[in-house]
Design a protein that fits this description.
Structural class: alpha+beta
Radius of gyration: 19 Å
Strand content: 5-15%
Number of strands: 5
Helix content: 40-55%
Distance between the termini: 29 Å
Number of helices: 7
Order of helices and strands: HHHHHEEHEHEE
């Protein structure tokens, strides 16, 4: 069975191909209003016909709700484009997420004047002062022991982030690492949001989109 990330990439690629075919046939005008209507109907039909694996149902339902409540502002076409681009980019990296890669992530952020904290136990309402710098906190027990014998990440890794989250997401993506947002602000670490790094970038959620 294909991984979630592979199925999601296939689904958004299929949606964009279907839109292109509909536009080339003259059925859908090339403007945001008609494109959003197309994707709203496309998502609903995909759910009704069970076109894709059940693991994608929650994603489709989320898009269906956005189309109904936000209209053109849902911008589903751009979401599909962004997801396709992001997963195609990540697929160009042959390596698995490992201890060396995570150390490199920390080094690159530190070079951008981030404060990096990986030597503390993360308990509820841990307070970390960063003096106004962007801050990344990873629990010592996870950062040091969350790997298999080959040094590859074996369980999801929680990253607690405060500051330039866009930069964090983009730097990680440049190394072949996707991030999945759990919270924007409140987490175990005061004033930090929580982001997940998942084994093999394969979490059944939508990832954060990097600026790459």
């Amino acid at each position: 069975m294909a991984l979630f990330k592979e199925q999601l990439l296939e689904m958004v690629t299929t949606g964009l191909n279907d839109l292109q075919a509909a536009q080339e046939s003259g059925k859908v005008p090339a403007n945001p209003l008609h494109e959003n209507h197309f994707f709203g109907a496309w998502v609903t039909t995909a759910l009704k016909t069970k076109r894709f694996d059940s693991i994608l149902v929650s994603i489709l339902k989320g898009w269906q709700q956005q189309a109904r409540t936000l209209g053109v502002a849902a911008n589903l076409k751009q979401q599909f484009i962004d997801l396709k681009s992001t997963y195609q980019h990540i697929a160009t990296f042959e390596h698995r997420i490992n201890t060396d890669l995570l150390n490199l992530l920390c080094e690159k952020l530190a070079a951008l004047t981030w404060q990096i904290t990986t030597d503390v136990s993360v308990t509820k309402k841990l307070s970390v002062k960063s003096g106004g710098l962007s801050s990344l906190v990873i629990a010592a027990e996870q950062f040091e022991n969350g790997y298999n014998e080959q040094g590859e990440l074996k369980v999801k890794l929680s990253c607690y982030v405060r500051g330039d989250t866009s930069q964090f997401i983009t730097v990680a993506a440049s190394l072949g690492i996707l991030l999945f947002k759990m919270t924007s602000y409140k987490s175990k670490v005061k004033f930090h949001g929580e982001y997940i790094i998942q084994v093999n970038n394969n979490l059944a959620e939508l990832p954060e989109i990097p600026d790459v």
